[in-house]
């Protein structure tokens, strides 16, 4: 089955362009021009990526992003924003959106970014191979598998978004190395998100909440005052 993309966009011209070009790539599409209608559908349907405009009738794209991220931690979300809505772009990333496009945008760039998000999601969902022992990072009760993209804490699965997993894996693979917010932003989000360092803070806080230990041991991710963050292993 080809990937299914949900398009939530109230501008008829943009929506028609998106439907046409994404179907031309072989994707299935479903279009909504109303936030509430999309909300009801997205809560129940099966799909592979959600493309959300921020400004929507009846229910905003940001609210949709927040709810979808809670319902489907690993499903890619791309936000569509206008040139003068930098604050909305920041909020969208902090709510868990994987990427954003600024209007007006190139359809070629849109297709490329969607392909990249779906490819990353496919890699994340691949079953583990027999060589998982070579790709497993173990720190005390925390286990990170870079092939299956699974994280376990105290034997229980920890549900992470794609960005949260990439951030955790990067820090764990470079244990004890201190990274600034700018360095983490560049490593995980890429240069296109330059200027959104606060997004790193939000994702770090989410990771800490999800990786909270049942005892009083120090947290795995440590803040280095005035510098940045590092992963604190059992030797730290």
General description of the model:
Mean pLDDT is 84; it is low at 128-133. A five-stranded parallel sheet has the order 2-1-3-4-5, with helices on both faces. Strands 6-7-8-9 form a four-stranded antiparallel sheet, with helices on one face. It is of the alpha/beta class and 236 residues long. It has helices at 12-24, 35-44, 61-71, 86-94, 107-124, 162-173, 181-189, 197-210, and strands at residues 4-8, 28-32, 49-53, 77-81, 99-102, 136-139, 142-145, 150-153, 156-157, 221-224, 228-231.
Q: Provide the CATH top-level class of the largest domain.
A: Alpha Beta
CATH superfamily assignment of the largest domain? Response regulator
Global geometry: globular
Number of strands: 11
Order of helices and strands: EHEHEHEHEHEEEEHHHEE
Identify the strand order in the major beta sheet. Answer: 2-1-3-4-5
Average residue-wise pLDDT = 84
Which fold name is given in CATH as the topology of the largest domain?
Answer: Rossmann fold
Integer tally of domains: 2
Helix content estimate: 40-55%
Percent of residues in beta strands: 15-25%
Just name the CATH architecture of the largest domain.
Answer: 3-Layer(aba) Sandwich
Biggest β-sheet strands, sense, barrel: 5 strands, parallel
User: How many helices in DSSP terms?
Assistant: 8
Gap from first CA to last CA: 47 Å
How would you summarize the topology of this molecule?
Blueprint: E1 4-8, H1 12-24, E2 28-32, H2 35-44, E3 49-53, H3 61-71, E4 77-81, H4 86-94, E5 99-102, H5 107-124, E6 136-139, E7 142-145, E8 150-153, E9 156-157, H6 162-173, H7 181-189, H8 197-210, E10 221-224, E11 228-231
Parallel strand pairs: 1-2, 1-3, 3-4, 4-5
Antiparallel strand pairs: 6-7, 7-8, 8-9, 10-11
Helix pairs in contact: 2-3, 4-8, 6-7, 6-8, 7-8
């Amino acid at each position: 089955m080809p990937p299914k993309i949900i398009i939530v966009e109230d501008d008829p011209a943009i929506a028609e362009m998106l439907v046409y070009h994404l179907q031309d790539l072989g994707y299935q599409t479903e279009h909504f021009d109303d936030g509430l209608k999309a909300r009801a559908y997205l809560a129940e349907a099966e799909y592979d990526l959600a493309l959300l405009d921020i400004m929507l009738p009846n229910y905003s794209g940001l609210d949709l992003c927040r709810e979808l991220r809670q319902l489907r931690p690993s499903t890619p979300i791309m936000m569509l924003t206008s040139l003068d809505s930098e604050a909305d772009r920041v909020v969208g990333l902090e709510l868990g959106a994987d990427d954003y496009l600024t209007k007006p945008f190139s359809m070629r760039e849109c297709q490329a970014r969607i392909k990249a998000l779906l490819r990353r999601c496919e890699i994340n969902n691949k079953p583990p191979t027999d060589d998982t022992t070579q790709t497993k990072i173990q720190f005390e009760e925390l286990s990170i598998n870079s092939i299956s993209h699974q994280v376990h804490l105290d034997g229980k699965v920890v549900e992470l978004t794609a960005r949260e997993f990439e951030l955790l894996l990067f820090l764990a693979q470079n244990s004890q190395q201190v990274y600034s917010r700018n360095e983490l932003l560049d490593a995980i989000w890429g240069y296109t998100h330059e200027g959104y360092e606060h997004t790193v803070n939000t994702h770090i806080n989410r990771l800490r909440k999800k990786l909270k230990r049942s005892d009083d041991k120090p947290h795995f991710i440590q803040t280095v005052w005035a510098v940045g963050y590092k992963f604190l292993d059992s030797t730290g």
